[in-house]
Amino acid sequence: MKKLLGVLPLLSLLGAQCGEVPTCTVAKDALTGVATITCPDGTSVTLEPGARGDTGAAGRDGTHATPCTVSRNADAGVTTIDCADGTSATVVDGKDGMNGDAGIRGEPGPPGTDGVTPTVTPIGAAGESGNCVGVGGVKVQVGTSTPVYVCNGAAGAAGPAGDAGTPGTPGANGLSPTVTAIGTQGEAGNCVGVGGLKLQLGTDTPVYVCNGAAGPAGDAGTPGTNGLSPTVTALGPSGEGSNCLGVGGVKIQVGTGTPVFICNGAAGAAGTPGSNGLSPTVTAVGPSGEGSNCLGVGGVKIQVGTGTPVFICNGAAGAAGPAGDAGTPGTNGLSPTVTAIGTLGEAGNCVGVGGVKIQVGTGTPVYACNGAAGAAGPAGDAGTPGESATVTEVPFEGEAGNCECRGGAKIQVGTGSPVYVCNAEAGFHNGGAGTCVPVGTCSSGYHDGGSGTCVALGSCSSGYHDGGDGTCVAVGTCVSGYAGTVCVPVVEVLGGSSTSGNWSFAGGSVTVATFKMDKTEVTVTQYAACVAAGVCPTPTNSCTGWGVPGEENHPFTCVTWYRADEYCTWAGKRLPTEIEWQWAASNRDTTVYPWGATTPDDTHANWSGVTPKSTRVAVGSYPKDSTAAGVLDMAGNVVEWTASDHTVGGTTKALRSAAWYVTSSNALRAAFRANSEAPQYGVFNVGFRCVQ
To answer: Cα–Cα 20 to 30 A to 644, which of 137, 368, 523, 574?
Structure first.
C-alpha cells in the first residue's frame, strides 16, 4: 500500500508537468534516499524519502513458529509450501464434478379420498329410536352408516330393606366407557393426521383407537386401498342373536368378517347387586410395538386384570406400485380373526366364563377370557346416574388453539378435559395475527416462513432462512442469483482463454474456468453473520465499519488476508485468484474498464480524479462501475484482497482495484497491477469479495 500512496499522486503530478507520456530520467542518491526526475522540457522534480508509517497490529499467530514460503502455479492449480525446517507440502486444486442428468418426473397420482369424520350427538333421558331410554348417552355415526349408541350406566336396583339395620352404603355404578371421536388434528399427540376414537373408563388413562393410515401412493399410480377399520356397535340388553342376552355389550366386526361380541358382566343376584366382573383394559400400541408384538404397525393391547394381554395389530400397508404403471393397489396385510368363545370354552381355554379367540392367519390362537362374576355385594340404595356429556359448538376461528379456521364441536363430561371434533379443512389458516385468511396468503406484516406457516416478516420457520430476496427457503439453499451460507447476490462469470499482453504476470496466456463471484465486496452486515455464527472474531477497530451507524452496507475493511480467507471458507466459497479477478473486471479480457472503454468521469466510480472523495461508500452506490455481467465496484471504492501471491514465492498478497482517493484513471483499469500487502496487515482501504 505504501507504493499506491506514493507513486499514484506522483504520476498525476508528472501527467500535469511533463505530458501524458513523458520521457524522463530518474537519478537516486543511495545514501540520502533523494530521487531527482528530469524531463526533456527542462522541468524536474526532487523527491524526499517518505517517513515510514506506523507499524500495523500484529497478525494472528500461525500454527507453529517455523517460517515458510508459499508459491502458487495458477495455471496448473498447484500450491507449494516450503518451510525452513525442511518440510514441504503440495496442494492440488480439486476439480468440479459433472452435474447429473435430471430425473424424469412422474405424473402425479390422483388424490386419496378423505375419510369420513364421525359425528357425535348427545342423547337425553328420553332416548332415541328405543336406545338409551331413561339414561341418555351419546350417538356416534360415521356418514350414513348405522349409528352406535353409548348409553350412560343404568341405576342399580334398590336392595330389600334391612331388618332394623342401618341403611347400606349406595352401590357404585359399573363404570361405562366414554367413546369420543378424535379429528385429524389428533389429541395429546395421538391419531394426528388420521383421527379415530378415544375410549376412557372413568378417570383412567384414555385409550386411542386410530383410523388406519392410507397406504403410500405409487408414482403415477392409483392410491393404495386403506386397511379395513373395525366397526364397533353397542348392544342393548336384548343382545343380538344369542349373544349378550340380558346384559348387552359391544359387537366388533372387521369388514364382512365374523363379528366378535364382548358382553357386559352379568348382574348379581336380585336385591343384592353384585360387583361387576373385571372389565378388559384396552391400550393403544404405537408403531414401535410392545415387546415383540405389533412391531412396525402398532395396534391395540387388551388385558383383563393381570391376565395375559392380547394384541390386535394393524394390518401392514401394501407396497406402493412401481412408478409410471397404473398403480395396482397394494394388498393389505393379514388382519386378525376374532372368534367368540362360549362358556363351554375351547381347547381347555375360557371354560365356564367364555371369551374371545384371536388368530392371525394360521398362527397360534390367543384366548382372552371374560372375568368371572364377583360375589354378591351388600344391599345398597339406588346408584346415582353418571354425568352426561355436553356438546358445544366451536366457532370458525377456533377455541384454545383447536379447530382454527374451520370450527367444529367441543365434547366435555363434567369438568373433564374437553374433546374437540373439527370440521373438514375449509381452505383457510391462521394468517399470523390470529385472523383466518385463505391458505397460501398471510396477514399484513407476516409471510410464509417456508413451511406454509405464517411468521413475522424478517423471520423464517425452524429449518428455513432468508434465501437472499426475503423469501424463506430450506437452510443450505438459496434462491436463484444468490449463494453462500448466508445468501448474497452472485454473478456467473463465463470462462475462456486469452493470450493478450494483459497477462504477462501470468506467463502470457491464461485459461479460466467458469465461476461465480459475489456481486459486491463483503459488507459489514454480511461479515456480522460470520461473527454471529461464532466463526469470525468480533472486530475491535472502528475502521472496519463495525458498530458505526450508517455503515452497515459499506465494504468491511481493515481486514487481514487471513480473516478474509476465513470468512469466505465459512460462507462455502474462497477468495478469487488474481487471474479470476482481472478476468471478471475486464469482461473476459475484452474491455479496458469494467464498464467498457469510456474514460471515467465523476459518475463512473468512487475515485478522486475529477472531484476529491473523502471515504468509502455503500456498495453499489455507483451503478456505472459494473461489468457487463453485473459485478459492481471493481474500479473504485476500496482495494480488494486476492488469493494469489504478488510474486512467485513472495511474502505479500496481490491486491486489485483502486480506492476512493486515487486520482489517476490508469489505476481504474481492469489490468492495473501495482498493489500488494503482507497478509497479516489489515489496511484502512482494503476489503474483499468471494467466489465459488
So the answer is: 523
